Automatic annotation (TrEMBL), chains A, B:
Domain MmgE/PrpD N-terminal: 29-266
Organism: Bradyrhizobium algeriense
Protein family: Belongs to the PrpD family.
Coiled-coil zones: none
Name under which the protein is recorded: 2-methylcitrate dehydratase PrpD
Gene3D superfamilies: 2-methylcitrate dehydratase PrpD
Alphabetized InterPro entries for the sequence: MmgE/PrpD_sf, MmgE/PrpD_sf_1, MmgE/PrpD_sf_2, MmgE_PrpD, MmgE_PrpD_C, MmgE_PrpD_N
Domain MmgE/PrpD C-terminal span(s) in chain numbering: 286-448
Classification via Pfam families: MmgE_PrpD_C (PF19305), MmgE_PrpD_N (PF03972)
Length: 463, 463
């Protein structure tokens, strides 16, 4: 792998922004990405491995999902030499095709990692192209980790600068910001000099797409997959000399303004290299929308108080922020609805004491006792609660009232999943995905990723 | 080619919009696209051929441009079976790769066709994937013409609905709307039923991208190429069952709102099947931004009045709308600048009496007399003039003042290029592109496109 070490220059690059407002954000990011070495990111190494482990968990969980099968079938006749694995399967595609398909499968279960400040799911669009490219070129685990950490950094900083208006306007932020992260990561992995990294990031701005209106449909997969594929494409084009505006993100006719955003330039570049967005990554314990996790946790606590008196429940009131109601107060007709339903989350947690992959399957969604309990749930606004919190009250037929409030759900930064929790999630997902890949080996390889000389050994069914 | 003829149902589909507001624009477009037959479009046939001839002209003109070479080099290792020609060259790629590269080359010279209401360049993103796919599958010229006409219809109607705010906000409208046209056209070419055409259009909404900030750079090529490639991709995914929201364009969290636009729903679907956007297509006589064409025409008239007294010019004042000034009042450092320079356009037209491909080459851009004459040009706002008009006044050293105004430039709908003009443009472009493709044969084949049983015969160097 060729490298272009700018070293201490990156600090000069960053400082000069304030002195010289003519320097574009693309240039600042590029100097930072080009100049960052293993030493700079070593302390982020463990969180990056946790993210990548969660990425494999979710990709393995959907390895045989029909949407993955369709993407593979469509792309196979359009693949060059098949260098890169489709995670959890025996097929391969070229690195751009594999990046597309693996990003889809990592995102399909809505069980991703989550950067809570933006609700970006960072790993799918970044890890997918990084691993596909690294496998194609026989690069090391350390190369992968550096590129992944930097990609997540760029992706989430772009998201920070336009949140929360961006998502609210209809942009699927994982897709729209993911392509920047994928471009930066792949450009780093290719060892490009700063000017070409800036071009890759600028080319990403001309490929940023994906709308919330399409989220309940397979079209969501296309924007997530494209973010991964097109970030890699941007880096490959930049490596061959394609250019872009260094102000593609923040310029007067650039990405942020076109997208309807007034970017917060401070949040784009402030403390670059000192704080790390990967450190703010979280992992879902439940395959439901993250705003429902506090509902589930509150219902787990209430289940202990209930002591099996389910039939005596008169009704259940779930209170939370406007976001909770906007996302989750809806009828449930299928698995996808269930994963974004206040009613279903509460019913499963109370009746079954569980909210894993099984509890969001059709078998449970259509179970009469669950459907009946969903009917007893109503959602109400409590504007005093922050996003991500929930208060659940149960009115018993006897007149007794039980209540629990959860401010920080399991899986949040305040109550993170342990490494063992993520391993257990991995095993759960792998069971669901019916993959024959050796899970123990993947877990071992990810934990020692910084010592792998060639990540190709990770990207196959057996060691 | 499989077909799904909805026939008279399309009218029912269109009427029902007003009665039943629940029907999405995607569904309306899809019913229209699925139900349109050759008889419905036969009267648009000749204008479609003119567009396609102009498309070949511009693609041949840039066949050996370095930007085309880079795209080919980057995509070659990522191509499946090479079914589809790169226009003007000997290489082939798979249909998605060829769609990307041919859209780039058709757009590189800024010598495209232009739909003046939106400033969309309709052919590049639509003709490129249609021809690449038709060649791969051995489809007929008539299939190509129907698909192309329908693709341009959807592309330009989406553009109409969001113009002029969309471009002004920073969206490169040829890229952002082109993907809808490409998707609709390829879905028609694949013979998909209406529900899948609607899905293809919805998937396009999640791939719509491209920013004006990147226009002076190679990143522009990426969004134009992606519009072509991703429209085809959307159709292929829809054919295999991928779905999208039927309200992906106009829904509350859909494309138009996310893009910052309030779509004019009337303009999306009004008189669908009765009026045709292809009939409003125009072809540039000069390879400069279209707003400069009136400047050139005015200077041609002034050149006759001047009668070679170029050295006696004191200064030249070009007056036009705010758009003219915003686009063209800039220093000239290279060919790309020259094609969007008021100063260069005026200087060439006055001194050389020409504004063809040669006049925008570096050899002329750096010629001392041209550079000196550019210095004498100043641009001034005349808010009373519409976009596309120009008033040019020459102050002679003697005190004499010469003046001309052009309200409708050559190439506009009021003064269109003749078929022979487009053929001549084709020959000019081909000379520039140094292609060995047989130009006479391409011209013949395009004029008789509706009789070609297999367009593969058109997509090669020699008949």
């Amino acid at each position: 792998m060729r490298r272009n070490r700018i070293g201490k220059n990156k600090l000069r690059g960053i400082r000069s922004v304030r002195q010289d407002e003519a320097q574009g954000v693309g240039t600042i990011f590029a100097d930072f990405v080009a100049g960052t070495t293993w030493t700079d990111v070593a302390r982020q190494n463990h969180e990056a491995k946790r993210s990548i482990l969660n990425f494999f968990a979710t990709a393995l969980g959907s390895a045989h999902d029909p949407a993955v099968g369709v993407a593979l079938r469509v792309l196979s006749p359009f693949s060059g030499a098949a260098t890169s694995a489709i995670i959890g399967r025996s097929e391969r595609l070229d690195a751009m095709g594999a990046a597309f398909v693996n990003a889809i499968s990592a995102n399909l279960l809505d069980f991703d990692d989550t950067h809570l400040d933006t609700i970006i799911h960072p790993a799918a669009p970044v890890a997918a192209p990084v691993l596909a490219l690294a496998q194609a070129r026989g690069l090391s685990g350390r190369d992968v980790l550096i590129a992944f950490i930097l990609g997540v950094e760029v992706e989430c900083r772009v998201g920070n600068a336009v949140s929360p208006g961006h998502y609210a306007r209809g942009w699927h932020i994982t897709s729209t910001c993911g392509v920047f992260g994928a471009a930066a990561a792949c450009a780093k992995l290719l060892g490009l000099p700063a000017v070409q990294i800036s071009n890759a990031i600028g080319i990403a701005a001309s490929q940023s797409a994906g709308i919330v209106e399409n989220l309940p449909s397979a079209a969501k997969n296309v924007s997530v997959g494209n973010a991964a594929r097109n970030g890699l494409f941007a880096a490959l084009l930049a490596a061959e000399g394609y250019s872009a505006s260094p102000r593609a993100i923040e310029g007067p006719l650039g990405w942020a303004r076109a997208m309807g955003d007034e970017p917060d330039l401070e949040r784009l570049t402030d403390s670059l290299g000192k704080t790390w967005e990967i450190a703010k990554n979280t992992y879902k314990p439940y395959p439901a929308g993250i705003v429902f996790h506090a509902v589930i946790d509150a219902c787990f606590k209430l289940r202990e108080k209930l002591d099996r008196r389910i039939d005596d429940i008169a009704f259940i009131t779930v209170r939370g922020s406007a976001l909770l109601l906007a996302r989750g107060d809806r009828p449930v007709c299928n698995e996808r609805d269930a994963r974004v339903s206040i009613h279903h989350c509460a019913a499963c947690a109370l009746l079954l004491g569980a909210a894993g992959i099984t509890e969001f399957s059709d078998a449970i969604v259509f179970r009469p006792e669950i459907a009946a309990l969903r009917q007893k749930v109503k959602a109400e606004l409590d504007a005093s609660l922050p996003d991500g919190a929930a208060r659940v009250a149960i009115q018993m037929a006897s007149g007794e009232m039980l209540s629990e409030v959860v401010m920080e759900a399991k899986g949040s930064l305040a109550d993170p999943l342990s490494d063992r929790d993520i391993e257990a999630k991995m095993r759960d997902c792998a069971r669901l995905g019916q993959s024959d890949w050796d899970i123990d080996r993947i877990i071992d390889d990810v934990w020692r990723l910084d010592t792998l000389a060639d990540v190709s050994s990770l990207m196959r069914a057996h060691g």
